[in-house]
Structure formats: C-alpha cells, structure tokens
Design brief:
295 residues, alpha+beta, Serine Protease, Human Cytomegalovirus Protease, Chain A, 2 domains, 8-stranded mixed sheet, 6 helices, 12 strands, elongated
Length: 295
Amino acid sequence: MESNDFILTDELLEKVNKFSRAKLAADEIYTFPVILCDNEVDRDYERFSIDALRKLAELFIGKTGIFDHNPKGENQTARIFDTEVKVSTDRITSAGEPYAYLSAKAYMIRTAKSADLIAEIDGGIKKEVSVSCSVKSHICSICGADMKKSPCTHIKGAEYGGKICSYILNDPFDAYEWSFVAIPAQKNAGVTKTYDNKYDKDYAALKSELAQAKKENFQAREMLKKEILRLSFLYNPLITVKTVGFLTNSLSFNQLLELKENLEQDLKEKEINSKGKTNTTNKNINEFKITKKEN
C-alpha cells in the first residue's frame, strides 16, 4: 500500500505561493491529494499511455478545479500546485502494463464559503474527479492505427483475437481543468487518502462491461446490416442478398452507417424523380384531352 497523504512542508508551501498574489500561510489554506487519471482502460474504452501521464503532469501544474466541467468562474474551487506520476510495482492493468497514475496536490483558501466543500471532501462526499485535456493521437490497441489520421475498422470495446479494443491516448498538448463529477470516466480518479490494491477487483467488473459492450455492438451491427439489405432491395431489386452480405461484412460500423444514410438519400431522390415523371405524364394526358375537345 502506498500513501498519498502529504505534509505541507515549507517547500510545498512555496509552490502554492507561486500561484497566489498575497503570500499565504499554512493555516490559511486547505490542501488535499487527488488522482487525476491513470493508464487503466476507462468506461469509454480509452486509456492514457504512461508517457502521456508524464506530459500531463507538467501540463496540469497550476490548473484549476471546477464542478462538472462547467467553465464558469464562480465554479473555481481549487488549484493544483504539484504533480507526480506514480508507477505500481505490484499491479498490472488489463492491457498488461504496470499500473501508473497521475497524482496531484491541490489547495484551496479556507473561507466561510469553502467550509462546506472542505467538509464534503474530508467526509468522502466530494471525491470523484475527471480531467479535461487534448491529445494529438488516439492509437488503436489492436493494430496501432492513429484514429485521427488513418482510422481503422476496429471498434472500441469489441474483442479481436481475445483482446479488447481500446484507444490509447497519447501526445497530450494541453490541459484545461479538472472537475469534481458524480461519475468519472476513469474509475480510480478522485480525491484520495491512500492507494490500495483493492482496485484490482475492478478488473472483473471491467471484463463484464466489455463483454456486454461486445454483445451490444454485435446486435447493433446485425440490425444495421439487415436495414441496409432492405434498403438495397428497394433501391434495386436485382441486387442479390449474397452481394449485399459480402459488402456489409467487410465494412466498419461507421462505414455501415454511412452506407445506410446514402441509400436512404438515394431512395428519397429516386422517389422525387419518380413523382416528377408521373406528374409530367398526367399533364400531357390532360393537355391531350383538352385539345381533343377543342377539335
């Protein structure tokens, strides 16, 4: 077990005062540790690389803490004055890497207004946090493709050859804020007292969630393929089921969506053109009848 508690030394107080206009004394501020993010697969099937965590450690120095990622000035509650990436020697992530997390030290001013929040933090009510940042790369864990540059067909949460697909967040270039939230994307992110190996138990729950996601992705994909088959028949009855099946089996989920939308658009245009031709034919018939009466 590794403790995240810390004593506000003169050295740390000096780091706090780099961000204050007036020189603050130790009894004027409240400090607390917080885990901002880690390299475990989160609820969105994404994870930071260890190198990304190290870069974020630099970027999050001085960043403000707010509520629910709402950027109003009145929501500013705390500020980070020190960070450190910690790597566990006895814990492995679901991706097979040593577990690492970005630990930060934050401070807030002791006032009558902040007293309730301090009590909620100490009481474990305000605990979970989420970070807001930007990264240059989303790397597919299955094939290594950068999803921002050359997307592959692998789907987050789906299983390929016994491995669950996730996106590795790499090359962070900006950190905006961190927020107190009710449900963070990363399960281990939050205000902490200690780091405990009990989090290893979350792996079983994560596997269950991934299995469910795989099932839901498969069902959604099959429904989409059936809808494409129906639309294809309406557009051109001569297209065979075998041909459509061969095509849809080779497409990603996003490509299937795009194909469905294109077919729907083509059918609408076909219907409009068909109505236009019918109206023109009716008009010619009426003109013929009128001409016939005049003669």
